[in-house]
């Protein structure tokens, strides 16, 4: 940890800003494919099998991160006085590559802006086709306002999942933290559902993801609150919505992200939510009108500001822990 980690986090964040997600051969997609193959072996309709599935996959990825860190920092990862410039540069490069691999904030913001463009131009079918890349709602059941709300809620939640959380764990644990978090979050997205197949098997993935996001979601909420003036919002409103409404949400972490965003924007999120598997009545978060397309653009701008602030804070934290 230290200067090399701080530099690597900033460089990786910069790469994500410039390049976004790789279009082909994304390592996270490769992990997802491997997880599907492992699931064919580990799957049983029980929590115990889900725990085994989680431990095997997250353990393997964490071990890879530890091995990479040791490979570039010397035998057994020990620090010595004769650490060379080449070794330090190796740490920076590996941390930057891992950071770029696990971040998704640039693609998130780009997709949010593209959604706003399609809605403003009246291309509802195009907006519906784009929505699955943001969330699991049923796009055919949504009109323009519903699409804007769904996209905005996804921007709020995934600002934490796609950028704040991985950078948080990168600052705490370096490359192993970066890779382990992305594995945990990916497995939750794959099996952490309450349906007939995954109610028990996906329990471990969902609970592990909840724990891994407890601190990052609150960091995201604090930054969203503090930076509300960037989009013309008031920190007091964001704070009030967070404290009053976040606990109503079924997720201990998504509620924080969505409620603080709703308060910063001055809109109301939640309510009737249609998924392909059925309809859920979500609690309302925030005060004000339902979000419109301009609010979606404001949410993207606030998300990008929070992401930059997180990168700077994570790098500073890693540097101070050297």
List the helices and strands and how they pair.
Elements: H1 3-19, H2 27-42, H3 47-73, H4 85-102, H5 105-120, H6 124-130, H7 144-191, H8 203-226, H9 235-245, H10 254-265, E1 269-275, E2 278-285, H11 293-320
Antiparallel strand pairs: 1-2
Give a description of the structure:
- The protein is mostly helical and 322 residues long.
- It has one domain (3-316).
- It has helices spanning 3-19, 27-42, 47-73, 85-102, 105-120, 124-130, 144-191, 203-226, 235-245, 254-265, 293-320, and strands at 269-275, 278-285.
- Strands 1-2 form a two-stranded antiparallel ribbon.
- The termini are close together.
- The mean pLDDT is 91.
Brief summary:
70% of the residues lie in helices and 5% in strands. The chain is mainly α. It has one domain (3-316).
Approximate helicity band? 55-70%
Which structural category do the helix and sheet elements fall into? mainly alpha
Mean pLDDT reading: 91
- Described by the principal axes of the CA atoms, the overall outline is globular
Total DSSP helices? 11
Number of strands: 2
- Spatial ordering of strands, largest sheet: 1-2
N-end to C-end Cα span: 5 Å
Radius of gyration over all CA atoms, rounded: 20 Å
* Overall number of structural domains: 1
Strand content: under 5%
What's the main sheet like?
A: 2 strands, antiparallel
Low-pLDDT sequence parts: none
Sequence of secondary-structure elements: HHHHHHHHHHEEH
């Amino acid at each position: 940890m230290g200067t090399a980690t701080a530099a690597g986090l900033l460089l990786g964040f910069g790469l994500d800003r410039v390049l976004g997600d790789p279009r082909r051969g994304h390592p996270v997609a490769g992990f997802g494919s491997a997880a599907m193959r492992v699931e064919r072996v580990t799957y049983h309709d029980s929590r115990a099998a889900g725990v085994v599935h989680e431990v095997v996959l997250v353990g393997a990825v964490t071990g890879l991160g530890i091995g990479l860190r040791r490979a570039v920092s010397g035998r057994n990862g020990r620090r010595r006085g004769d650490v060379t410039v080449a070794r330090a540069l190796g740490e920076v490069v590996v941390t930057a590559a891992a950071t770029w691999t696990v971040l998704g904030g640039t693609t998130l913001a780009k997709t949010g802006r593209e959604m706003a463009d399609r809605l403003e131009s009246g291309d509802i079918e195009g907006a519906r086709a784009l929505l699955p890349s943001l969330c699991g709602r049923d796009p055919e059941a949504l009109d323009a306002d519903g699409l804007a709300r769904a996209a905005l809620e996804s921007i709020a939640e995934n600002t934490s999942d796609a950028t704040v959380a991985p950078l948080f764990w990168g600052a705490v644990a370096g490359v192993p933290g970066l890779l382990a978090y992305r594995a945990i979050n990916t497995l939750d997205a794959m099996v952490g559902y309450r349906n007939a197949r995954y109610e028990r098997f996906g329990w471990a993935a969902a609970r592990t993801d909840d724990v891994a996001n407890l601190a990052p979601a609150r960091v995201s909420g604090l930054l969203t609150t503090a930076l509300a003036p960037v989009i013309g919002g008031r920190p007091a409103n964001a704070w009030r919505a967070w404290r009053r409404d976040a606990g109503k949400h079924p997720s201990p972490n998504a509620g924080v992200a969505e409620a603080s965003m709703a308060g910063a924007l001055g809109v109301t999120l939640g309510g009737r939510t249609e998924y392909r598997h059925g309809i859920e009545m979500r609690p309302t978060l925030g005060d004000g009108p339902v979000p419109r397309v301009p609010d979606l653009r404001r949410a993207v701008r606030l998300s990008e500001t929070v992401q930059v602030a997180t990168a700077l804070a994570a790098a500073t934290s890693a540097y101070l822990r050297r």
